[in-house]
Amino acid sequence: MKKLSGFNKMMFVLNIVLTVLTFIAYILPFLAPRLFPLLSVFTLMMPLMLLLNVMFFLYWLLQTKRQMLLSGLVLLLGITFISKCYKFSSTNLPEDNSDFTLMSYNVRMFNLYDWLPERDIPQKIMQFVKDNNADIVCLQEYTKRGNASFPGYKHSFLFAKDGLSGQAIFSKYPILESGYIEFPHSGNNVIFADIVKKKDTLRVYSMHMQSIKISPDIHERIDEEKSKVIFRRLSEAFKKQQQQAELFEKHKSECSHPMIICGDLNNSAFSYVYRSIKGNMKDAFEEAGKGFGKSYNYKYYPARIDYVFADKSLEVKEYNTFSKFTYSDHFPIMTRLAFHKDE
């Protein structure tokens, strides 16, 4: 460090501070939010911290300074976090008759309360679902009052409580059993359906975890006082999400079928909740996606909060995020799957 200029010494100190913060963020997915509720919000900064580490690495590399090893080590140790944040190439395996497709989409009640100026959003969402023709469609924040219908699906399970927005699973394949998991003191929930595809029975869970209640346009009116409110609201939501995840884990453990878990987790891929719910399942975006996989329409942050987790017995052959379809505050996601041939 003695050979560094005054400016580079300052840069290296900032680099060290960033390294410490990044390692803290690496540990947080393993710590329960109820123990460190405020600290858990820090996981939302992971994409920015990874990007800054890349910039520091390039900064030192261009000067051929050995200080590049610090950020290089951070990035190497966080390689699994990088793949959750950004994928450089996608996967699109050949189609087969055994393939099936699943779409997950938070439809924001089909614009029931006119968040968007268009008056025909239910019709546009209906047409979008029809055009993409997924075999299984899971819709969060679903409401019958949205005047949307999906006649192309013979089998369905819908759930809503006390007039609140609910969820729906539509399937081209028969549904054997279905049900729901209610979360205490919350309008959020999980629904499930046991779907029969030829000789296989597959449990599909559709989730809508505790909402953080932050508008996509919050950046237009944020100030110091509101930032404190947002920070507190996030930490409280993450604590509730942990409780909900624990209820879900108990229900999930009693299922003997291969399963798919999809929906709106309202949390990042670097969170305790994500790690808890995903378990040893495959993240379809990590398996076959590309780019940031941004699923929430926030202007300045590549928020991926909608997921599809697939059982180990399933092969993820394709994954898409429809980021140009802007008729909700979320983007639809869709994946093509198949049971492994040796199953």
Order of helices and strands: HHHHHEHEEEEEEHEHEHEEE
Q: Architecture of the largest domain, according to CATH? A: 4-Layer Sandwich
Mean pLDDT reading: 91
CATH fold node name of the largest domain: Deoxyribonuclease I, Chain A
In terms of quaternary structure, the protein is single chain
What low-confidence regions span 5 or more consecutive residues with pLDDT below 50? none
Report how far the terminal alpha carbons are from each other: 57 Å
Overall 3D form:
globular
According to CATH, what is the class of the largest domain?
Alpha Beta
Helix content: 25-40%
Sheet of most strands? 6 strands, mixed
The CATH homology group name of the largest domain: Endonuclease/exonuclease/phosphatase
Q: How many whole angstroms does the radius of gyration measure? A: 21 Å
Helical stretch tally: 9
- State the domain count: 2
Approximately what portion of the residues adopt beta-strand conformation? 15-25%
Instruction: Give the spatial strand order of the biggest sheet.
Output: 3-4-2-1-12-11
Task: Give the number of DSSP strands.
Answer: 12
By helix and strand content, what is the structural category? alpha+beta
Task: Give a description of the structure.
- By secondary structure, the protein is α+β, with helices and mostly antiparallel strands.
- It folds into two domains: 6-85; 100-339, Deoxyribonuclease I, Chain A (4-Layer Sandwich), CATH 3.60.10.10.
- Helix content is 33%, strand content 23%.
- The protein has a six-stranded mixed β-sheet with strand order 3-4-2-1-12-11. Strands 5-6-7-8-10-9 form a six-stranded mixed β-sheet.
- Strand 1, helix 6 and strand 2 (136-142) form a beta-alpha-beta unit.
- It is globular, with a radius of gyration of 21 Å.
